[in-house]
Amino acid sequence: MYPFSYTKVADLDDALAAGRRGGRYIAGGTTLVDLMRETVERPGTLVDISDLPLRRISATPQGGLRIGALVSMAEAAAHPALRTAYPVVTQALELSASAQLRNMASIGGNIMQRTRCGYFRDVTAACNKREPGSGCTAINGHNRTHAILGTSDHCVATHPSDVAVAFAALESTVHVLGPDGPRTIAFGDFHLRPGSTPEREQSLRPGELITAVEIPAHPRPLASGYLKVRDRQSYEFALVSAAVALHVRGRVIQQAKIAAGGVGTVPWKLPAVERHLVGKRPSPQLWTEAAELAAEGARPLEHNGFKVDLLKRTIERQLSTLGGTA
């Protein structure tokens, strides 16, 4: 670990001032501290924001829910309003990490976490995300867990967050505060595909701080859930995951919100699957047809071609679980 300075702030103005001076925000530290130990991250200054007033979950006037950036994963997973309205979110949180990490990690930090690609974390390996222009060892290396969607010739690393997949499916927004004041970012625009600049992972501007994630109101009844397929049943990242929310009324699908994890360089929304479902009656045949569209545009690598079929089967299974048949 390289030397760094540390400061703790108690209000938003002080936090923004420190951010303008180049400080890196830290709350639970469950990702950043690990990366500092491995010398992947070398911040000069850490700004501890854990005392900021960003720990509330509240209803919005429009009927959605706003989750403060410093709410812990465990607190969000246990919150009655979230559990009732959006089980896809609480299930994604409960299937993440370990109980100890969920107690420490914040919602804002979770959606900011960096990839678990082994080559990114190995400072002796070439990684464009860590050192732009150095190459991507994963493309021709061991790439079983890497992305098949949203990749580029510069990076094939998957985004690791589970709850970000649920937020993406529900078309949430990220509230941020920065030197130019507050702004909101559509969740689908928050994470950036690697393209030729994989070192740029989010659309945050310098000095900006995440203050909340807001889930918009969705029509009721809404059946939602999160399915995670992994190599073992605990403390493991997804090979494939599916966040699904269905609004069925009069035995017809009125709304479908679907995203996948473990397969994309960002939380991967599936609009083609959604469009195929809306206006139709639930049936096993419909689930199969819709799931076939999930892997459109996939670019599998040498060791992860199995993810194409696994993605389709995972989406189909979750659609069947939540939607049943007419």
TrEMBL record:
<dbReference type="InterPro" id="IPR051312">
    <property type="entry name" value="Diverse_Substr_Oxidored"/>
</dbReference>
<dbReference type="InterPro" id="IPR036318">
    <property type="entry name" value="FAD-bd_PCMH-like_sf"/>
</dbReference>
<dbReference type="Pfam" id="PF03450">
    <property type="entry name" value="CO_deh_flav_C"/>
</dbReference>
<dbReference type="GO" id="GO:0071949">
    <property type="term" value="F:FAD binding"/>
</dbReference>
<dbReference type="InterPro" id="IPR016169">
    <property type="entry name" value="FAD-bd_PCMH_sub2"/>
</dbReference>
<dbReference type="InterPro" id="IPR002346">
    <property type="entry name" value="Mopterin_DH_FAD-bd"/>
</dbReference>
<dbReference type="InterPro" id="IPR036683">
    <property type="entry name" value="CO_DH_flav_C_dom_sf"/>
</dbReference>
<dbReference type="InterPro" id="IPR016167">
    <property type="entry name" value="FAD-bd_PCMH_sub1"/>
</dbReference>
<keyword id="KW-0560">Oxidoreductase</keyword>
<dbReference type="InterPro" id="IPR016166">
    <property type="entry name" value="FAD-bd_PCMH"/>
</dbReference>
<protein>
    <submittedName>
        <fullName>Xanthine dehydrogenase YagS FAD-binding subunit</fullName>
    </submittedName>
</protein>
<feature type="domain" description="FAD-binding PCMH-type">
    <location>
        <begin position="1"/>
        <end position="220"/>
    </location>
</feature>
<dbReference type="InterPro" id="IPR005107">
    <property type="entry name" value="CO_DH_flav_C"/>
</dbReference>
<dbReference type="Pfam" id="PF00941">
    <property type="entry name" value="FAD_binding_5"/>
</dbReference>
<dbReference type="GO" id="GO:0016491">
    <property type="term" value="F:oxidoreductase activity"/>
</dbReference>
